[in-house]
Amino acid sequence: MKNILVATDFTENSRPALETAVYLASTNGAVLHLLHTYLPVYPMTETVTGPPLTVEWEETYRNSAQEQIDKLTEELQARNVVVTSHLELGPLTPIIKEFTEEKSVDLVIMGRTESSESGNWFTDFFGNSSTQLFNELQVPLLVVPGEVEEYGFTRIAYATQLEFDESETVKKTFQWADSIGAAVQLINVQSDREPNIASDDDMLADIQALVPEHHITLLQRKSDSVEEGILELLKDTEADLLIMSTHHRNLFTQIVNPSKSKKLLLHCPIPVLLFPLKEIE
Q1: Which of 226, 238, 230 is nearest to 156 (CA)?
Q2: DSSP string, 245-268
Q3: 107 with 142: CB under 8 angstroms?
Q4: Which of 53, 60, 161, 270 could form a disulfide with 251 if both were Cys (CB 3.0 to 4.6 A apart)?
Q5: Can you give the three-state secondary structure of 72-131, one letter per residue?
Q6: Which range has the worst mean pLDDT, 18-27, 92-101, 120-129, 233-242?
Q7: pLDDT tens digits for 66-98?
Q8: How many Å apart are CA 18 and CA 26, to the nearest integer?
Q9: Residue 167 gets which letter from DSSP?
Q10: 3-state SS, residue 172
Q11: Using CA atoms, how far apart are residues 99 and 103, in angstroms rounded to an integer?
Q12: Own/partner pairs for 39-47, CB < 8 Å, 24+ apart?
């Protein structure tokens, strides 16, 4: 992991995401890219004389944002973090997508707030643009709740449906866990609403073969709701990080859709790391 991108809005809710990014950057010797985006505000009335209100607002806001991001950059540099800062005008989702491609970003980190106020950048992100970003982003996405107080990971819960090939994500999960000294526990929710085509034992054996140096264990729970079952399993495992893979016909599809994504991602008490996988044909 060489490049980590963290998006911030300078609020207290985004601080845990920043601290998690600092922890991971320091642990992996990575460059931390600090990103803040903003959108223009269009005035309701026009001015007769003087510069347009939009231009004046943008200049005032940009100057203020630049001061904040510079101050934050200096703080992180004083903590021996290799950091670069980026202040961009435009919508968050396409900017992140373009940035990850241009800077060879290995991980994107975002803060989370449960605020539903209009204009909140995280709420907007998990609104209409969420499906597009999940489908297009080719790097892992780590979502950190604003209530998190500890920024290291020691117990990782990897949610698997035990139905599709997740070998790429499984290997990356264990490699990543080894690099930070964390343990991995596989969790699985059994539900009548979920497909049950492949043998769980066979899928588990395949996973074990991928990481023979680790002893794989699986914790299962029956539940009518996948997301509620996962939340219960997280309590059982006392996990401090949830990892899931993201392709179209797996566990993630049952959770991340216009109705279910907010319920899990906006209320999961621990950070959620989403690994992108290619769509299954």
Answers
A1: 238
A2: EE-TTSHHHHHSSTTTHHHHHTT-
A3: yes
A4: 161
A5: HHHHHHHCCCCEEEEEEECCHHHHHHHHHHHCCCCEEEEEECCCCCCCCHHHHHCCCCHH
A6: 120-129
A7: 999 999 999 999 999 999 999 999 988 889 999
A8: 12
A9: H
A10: helix
A11: 6
A12: 39/89, 39/90, 39/91, 40/89
Using an 8 Å Cβ cutoff, are 38 and 63 in contact?
Answer: no
Describe the crossing of helices 167-180 and 15-28 by its angle, rounded to 10 degrees: 80
Measured between alpha carbons, how far apart are the two ends of the chain, in Å? 29
Per-residue pLDDT tens for 150-162? 889 999 999 988 8
| Separation in Å, CA 40 to CA 37, 54, 59, 62, 125 | 10, 7, 10, 10, 17
In angstroms, rounded to a whole number, what is the distance separating the alpha carbons of residues 56 and 202? 63
Instruction: Give the domains, in start order, of the chain with CATH numbers.
Output: 3-145 (3.40.50.620), 155-276 (3.40.50.620)
Give me the half-sphere count of Cα atoms (radius 13 Å) on the Cβ side of residue 32. 30
160 CB contacts (<8 Å, ≥6 apart)?
A: 166, 170, 186, 187, 188, 203, 207, 245, 251
Please give the Cα distance from 139 to 145 (Å, whole number).
Answer: 20
Do residues 8 and 137 make contact, with C-beta atoms less than 8 angstroms apart?
no
Q: H or E element: which one contains 5?
A: strand 3-7
**For 245, phi and psi rounded to 5 degrees?**
-95, 155
The per-residue pLDDT for range 36-59, each reduced to its tens digit, is 998 876 555 555 555 555 667 778
Residue matched to tokens 């007769």:
48
